[in-house]
Amino acid sequence: MVHLWGSKAKEEIEMRKSALGEGAVGDIVVVVGAEKLDSALVFLACQMAKGVKRKVHLVHVIEVPRTLPLKAELPRESERADKILNSALTIAERVGCEAVAEVVQAREAGHAIVDEARDHRCSLILLGLVRNNDKTQDDLGKTVPYVLANAPCRVWLIQDPCPAMVQCATA
Predict the structure, then answer these.
(1) CA separation, residue 64 to residues 61, 72, 73, 81 (Å)
(2) Quick check: pTM over 0.70?
(3) What is the CA angle 75-77-78, rounded to 5?
(4) How many domains is the chain built from?
(5) In a domain, 156, yes or no
(6) CA distances from 149 to 66, 114, 142 (A)
(7) What φ, ψ does residue 67 adopt, rounded to 5°?
(8) Is 108 helix (H, G, I), strand (E, B) or coil?
(9) Are strands 154-160 and 28-31 parallel, antiparallel or unpaired?
(10) Most CB contacts within 10 A, which of 8, 28, 30, 123?
């Protein structure tokens, strides 16, 4: 690759800034939920954030059933959240990015994600979606459409094909 104008480092910083949006000054929220796609999202967010000196908020949402109080202790879910977030923090540390991990208990994940982005004045939300074989292609659940419709910032939705589709494509 030949760079005729400016340096490569300057181009990379400009690219990272444009990813967050024109004049954006906020941090990045990454929603993690134990999908294989999560590590790629965390790595991508950390690379962008490091380049523009921003922080990454790693958010795991535990949806609490309406039959329980919102502040109910859910030990199994909390343990799982700890493992997920510790893994994400390890990636952030390797990249050299400042990251904060948060577990949020909420009735609806979409509302919690939008509230976190708003509370931290974030410029970007990264969401991952792995398609499921037993769902139709148009079924995004209720979280993704809510976040897309109500987020106070840019939203990047990264979708992986379901594992069965990948196997069929390579066969």
Answers:
(1) 9, 8, 10, 13
(2) yes
(3) 60
(4) 1
(5) yes
(6) 24, 10, 11
(7) -75, -10
(8) coil
(9) unpaired
(10) 28
- The DSSP code sequence of 29-64 is EEE--S-TTHHHHHHHHHHHHHHTT--EEEEEEEEP
What tokens appear for 123 in the block?
């410029």
| Residue 88 · residue 101 · CB < 8 Å | yes
- Evaluate whether residue 3 is within a structural domain: no
Determine what percent of the chain falls in helix, strand and coil, rounding each to the nearest 5.
Answer: 45, 20, 35
- For residue 19, tell me if it sits in a domain: no
Residue 78 backbone dihedrals phi, psi, to 5 degrees: -65, -40
- Residue 66 exposed, middle or buried by CB count within 10 Å (0-12, 13-18, 19+): exposed
Which of these, 28, 30, 160, 27, lies nearest to 88 by C-alpha position? 30
Residue 2 lies in a domain: no
pLDDT tens for 67-109 read 999 999 999 999 999 999 999 999 999 999 999 999 999 999 9
pLDDT digits (tens, 9 = 90+) for 44-78: 999 999 988 899 999 999 999 999 999 999 999 99
| Residues comprising the chain, all counted | 171
Please give the order of strands across the beta sheet that includes 56-63: 99-106, 56-63, 28-31, 124-130, 154-160
The CATH number given to whatever domain includes residue 45 is 3.40.50.620
